[in-house]
Design a protein that fits this description.
Length: 277
C-alpha cells in the first residue's frame, strides 16, 4: 500500500509500505519512513532466526542442530553486503543448520555480544551443542559462509571438553587445525572419510581448532597446522604423520608409533650442496 509522507529532508511524497502490518512496524515506519527495511521484516531473510535477548540466545545454541550466528549492525556497510547472502544460505541450509542473527545496535543485542567480545561487524560464530567453536573469518560469499573449513562430521573438542574426553576414551586421534590454514583445508575431507569409516571402532577421531583454543595448543606444544597427535589413556603419546585415508586407517587399527619422516637432503649431514633454496 502507498502512504503519503511529509519529511523535512525529502519533502512530501508517497512511499510503498512493504513491512509487517503491526503496531510496532507501522510506528517504526512513521518515525523513519525512508530508512532501510529492518532485517527482521525482510522476506528474503524469512529463514533467518532473529534473537532478541540472552535467554533466547542461550536456548538457541544448545539445540541439536549446528548454529551459525551473525552479529550485525544495521548501519554497517559490510553487514548490508552480506545480508542477501545470509538469507540465501539460511534457505539453502534449512533443516540442516540454524542461521541466526543478533542486532548489536540494540541494548539486549549488546548484552549477548559481550561474552564473545564482538568489536567489529559483521562477526560470525559457529556453535555446536552450546559450544562456540569457530569464529568465522573467511570471505563472505554464499559458498564460504556455509562451507566453512570445519570438520563437519568429526566431533570438535574445546578447552571445556578436551581433558574429559581424552581421559574417558583410551585411544584418541586428535587433529589440530586452523581454519585459515590451506593444509588444514586440504586435510579436512580426508579426516572426514576416516571418521566415517572408523565409526564404531575403539579409536576415536576428533578435532581441535587451534586458533580458537590456544590453551590446549600451548599445553601440548602444537607448533604448526595441521598436526595429528595420538592420545592413549589420557596422555599424549606421539605424532602421526600419515595423511592419506588408507594410511591413517591402517595405523588406527594397529596404532604403533610410526617412524619419523625421512629428513630432506638439506637437513642431512652430507657433502652434497642443495641448490633449491
Amino acid at each position: 500500500m502507498l502512504i503519503e509522507v511529509a519529511d523535512n529532508v525529502y519533502g512530501k511524497g508517497s512511499i510503498d509500505y512493504d513491512r509487517k502490518v503491526t503496531v510496532s512496524s507501522i510506528s517504526n515506519f512513521l518515525e523513519e519512513p525512508f530508512a532501510d527495511l529492518p532485517w527482521n521484516e525482510d522476506t528474503k531473510l524469512k529463514d533467518v532466526l532473529f534473537v532478541e535477548n540472552k535467554e533466547k540466545f542461550d536456548k538457541l545454541i544448545k539445540k541439536k542442530l549446528p548454529t551459525l550466528v551473525l552479529f550485525y549492525a544495521p548501519w554497517c556497510g559490510h553487514c548490508k553486503n552480506i545480508r542477501p547472502i545470509y538469507g540465501e544460505v539460511a534457505s539453502d541450509r534449512k533443516g540442516e543448520t540454524i542461521l541466526a542473527a543478533v542486532d548489536m545496535n540494540t541494548a539486549k543485542g549488546k548484552i549477548i555480544g559481550e561474552k564473545y567480545h564482538i568489536t567489529g561487524f559483521p562477526t560470525l560464530y559457529y556453535f555446536d551443542k552450546g559450544e562456540d567453536l569457530y569464529p568465522y573469518g573467511g570471505p563472505r560469499t554464499k559458498v564460504s559462509v556455509w562451507a566453512e573449513n570445519v570438520f563437519t562430521s568429526v566431533e570438535h573438542l574445546t578447552e571445556k571438553t578436551f581433558e574429559h574426553y581424552i581421559k574417558k576414551n583410551n585411544k584418541v586421534l586428535v587433529v589440530f587445525h586452523a581454519n585459515w590454514c590451506k593444509h588444514s583445508q586440504n586435510l579436512q575431507p580426508i579426516i572426514e572419510k576416516v571418521a566415517e569409516q572408523m565409526k564404531g571402532e575403539s579409536m576415536k577421531i576428533v578435532a581441535v581448532d587451534g586458533a580458537a583454543h590456544n590453551t590446549i595448543v600451548k599445553k601440548y606444544k602444537v607448533d604448526g597446522y595441521p598436526k595429528l597427535y595420538f592420545f592413549e589413556n589420557g596422555k599424549k603419546a606421539y605424532e602421526v604423520f600419515a595423511r592419506k585415508v588408507h594410511d591413517i586407517i591402517f595405523w588406527a587399527k594397529n596404532p604403533k608409533k610410526p617412524q619419523l619422516p625421512e629428513k630432506s637432503w638439506d637437513l642431512k649431514n652430507t657433502n652434497v650442496v642443495v641448490l633449491n633454496k
